[in-house]
């Protein structure tokens, strides 16, 4: 026994044994975490070195990764011919299905929606079964999320005019999408690109977007939680583009507050956050959100005043009124995008003074037929009369300029023709004189007196 003690040491008690086991488990967990971290770093390095995989598009050179997620990877790249910066979204392409995002984005044509440049396919490691779709889009350097975060960190309020112009453009984009029957289904600050200098804004990322068909069910578990409309939380499958209207309302509130308005950790908490501000919905309101939802047991809570919500920031009262109309339980009670654009909060943007100051940067009134499709009767209210008059004058000037160019072109052509005709006549005369001189020369050779005549003629 003593020899065994010398060889193996003192026997361990149970607690010591458990402690060693726990230490061993912790060590294994640490090693596993390190391995996972190393694998992630290796994957990131592989992604960053994937420029060679883009040899299928000789017109593009990759720069760096600017976005990464379950959807795929987003690269910053450059067009070789124009040196224009672009963003490339690379996603796995299942051969059995069409890529819905690509099908939607290539059909879009609006100044406040991201623009498609081109698209092409590549393979991973020359594997024909691993095909990737590369969607090339215009590049806008900032997201609204980043801008909001910058102002929050600097403890500065979001510039009121910038907030107003951004909000207006979001609803113009939504009016267009509504006109062509598309619901974005994931509007949030991270999916909104903007340029503070030009005040231009573009909605991007149509990975969750869908063309809604009346009567056709849709998944309710959609849209990022903080910006998810209450009808989705109640499980509605027959929803409309009004869910996008709700999302924009929450984004506007976030621009004011500097943080999400409804920061729920899960679906139930999200609904609680909404009820804390809007109050408990009635049974009738729940039925209008989702007729299939029969059970609802929440304590009766009174709504909170919107003025109280924004007491610290003290925004324009008209802006508070707008938000109070956008963020309501019943989807049909929310104003349409075009109706929202007519809210008094946006009256400043319809002034000629604003147009003269910012028209070089953005055009807020060049509405397309698709935008006006749902409510064409509102066109006369949306487009100021002074704007129409200016555009008509500009159009006349352009037409007059084109006519002047055409007249000038016609005159140049006429003078050119006349000149060519005169040159043809002159050349003809030279040919005649040349022939006549040749005949005179031959005559002088046969008749000596003719030579004297030519000499006398030349000196006279």
From TrEMBL:
Residues 23-32, 438-452 have a biased composition (Low complexity). This is Glycogen synthase kinase-3. InterPro entries: GSK-3 (IPR050591), Kinase-like_dom_sf (IPR011009), Prot_kinase_dom (IPR000719), Protein_kinase_ATP_BS (IPR017441), Ser/Thr_kinase_AS (IPR008271), STKc_GSK3 (IPR039192). GO terms for molecular function: ATP binding; protein serine/threonine kinase activity. Belongs to the protein kinase superfamily. CMGC Ser/Thr protein kinase family. GSK-3 subfamily. Residues 60-346 form the Protein kinase domain. ATP binds at residue 90. Keywords: ATP-binding, Kinase, Nucleotide-binding, Serine/threonine-protein kinase, Transferase. One of its GO terms (biological process) is signal transduction. Residues 1-32, 428-460 are annotated as: Disordered. The keyword Nucleotide-binding applies. Pfam families: Pkinase. GO terms for cellular component: cytoplasm; nucleus. SMART domains: S_TKc. Residues 1-22 have a biased composition (Polar residues). The lineage of its organism: Eukaryota, Sar, Alveolata, Ciliophora, Intramacronucleata. It comes from the Eukaryota.
């Amino acid at each position: 026994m003593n020899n065994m003690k010398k060889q193996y040491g003192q026997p361990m008690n149970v607690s010591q044994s458990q402690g060693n086991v726990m230490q061993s488990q912790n060590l294994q967990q640490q090693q596993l975490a390190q391995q996972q971290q190393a694998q992630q770093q290796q994957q990131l390095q592989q992604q960053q070195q994937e420029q060679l995989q883009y040899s299928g598009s000789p017109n593009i050179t990759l720069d760096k990764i600017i976005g990464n997620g379950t959807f795929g990877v987003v690269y910053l790249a450059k067009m070789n011919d124009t040196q224009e910066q672009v963003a490339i979204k690379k996603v796995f392409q299942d051969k059995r299905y069409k890529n819905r995002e690509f099908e939607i984005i290539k059909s879009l044509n609006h100044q406040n929606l991201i623009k498609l440049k081109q698209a092409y396919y590549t393979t991973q490691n020359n594997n024909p079964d691993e095909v990737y779709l590369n969607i090339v889009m215009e590049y806008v350097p900032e997201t609204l999320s980043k801008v909001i975060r910058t102002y929050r960190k600097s403890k500065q309020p979001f510039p009121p005019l910038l907030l107003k112009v951004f909000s207006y453009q979001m609803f113009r984009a939504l009016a267009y999408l509504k006109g062509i029957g598309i619901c974005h289904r994931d509007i949030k600050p991270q999916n909104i690109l903007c340029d503070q200098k030009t005040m231009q804004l573009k909605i991007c990322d149509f990975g969750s977007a869908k063309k809604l068909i009346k009567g056709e069910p849709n998944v309710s578990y959609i849209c990022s939680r903080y910006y998810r409309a209450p009808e989705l939380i109640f499980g509605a499958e027959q929803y409309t583009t009004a869910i996008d209207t709700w999302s924009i309302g929450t984004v506007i509130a976030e621009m004011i507050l500097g943080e999400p308005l409804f920061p729920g950790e899960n679906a139930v908490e999200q609904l609680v956050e909404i009820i804390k501000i809007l109050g408990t919905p009635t049974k009738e309101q729940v039925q209008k959100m989702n007729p299939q939802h029969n059970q609802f047991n929440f304590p009766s809570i009174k709504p909170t005043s919107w003025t109280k919500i924004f007491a610290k920031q003290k925004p324009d009262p008209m802006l508070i009124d707008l938000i109070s109309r956008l963020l309501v339980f019943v989807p049909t009670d929310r104003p349409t995008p075009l109706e929202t654009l007519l809210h008094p909060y946006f009256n400043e943007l319809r002034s000629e003074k604003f147009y003269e100051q910012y028209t070089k940067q953005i055009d807020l009134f060049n509405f397309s037929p698709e935008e006006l499709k749902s409510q064409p009767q509102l066109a006369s209210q949306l487009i100021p009369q002074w704007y129409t008059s200016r555009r008509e004058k500009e159009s006349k000037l352009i037409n007059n300029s084109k006519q002047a160019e055409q007249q000038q072109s016609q005159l140049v052509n006429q003078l050119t023709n006349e000149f060519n005709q005169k040159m043809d006549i002159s050349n003809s005369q030279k040919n005649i004189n040349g022939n006549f001189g040749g005949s005179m020369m031959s005559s002088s050779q046969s008749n000596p007196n003719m030579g004297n005549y030519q000499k006398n003629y030349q000196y006279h």
